[in-house]
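Working notes for the structural subgroup meeting. M.R. asked for a predicted model of this chain before we commit to crystallization trials. I am recording the input and output together here so anyone reviewing the notebook later can reproduce the run.

Input as submitted:
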Amino acid sequence: MTYVRPHYRRDGTYVKGHNRRTRPRTAQPRTAPRRTTRRPRPVPNGPTTYVRPYYRADGTRVRGHHRTISPRTIAVVAGTGGGGLMLLLILLALAGGPGTSSNAPAGTTPSHSASAPAAPHR
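Returned structure, recorded in token form:
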């Protein structure tokens, strides 16, 4: 065993003096590098969204990752986003907005513009 003198790490923590092992824990020396097998990533159960990397208020860096979207969030977004557009389209159709015919309904006369004087009837 080798003795390691007490010292301070780069992050400022103090390390007491100790004995360090000089040989591997196993009785047989390693001849080939050990292969690490990667664990399979969990498959998300529903829709996901990507969260970009960011720093927390305490300075901790959070890596970018995929996050599953809860069914409640999907319902809130679908209820406000798509429903508002549909309501707007229905109101435009009822109010005679773009896309309606230019023929006036029977029994009404078109109003004249305020900027162009009306022609006298003869």
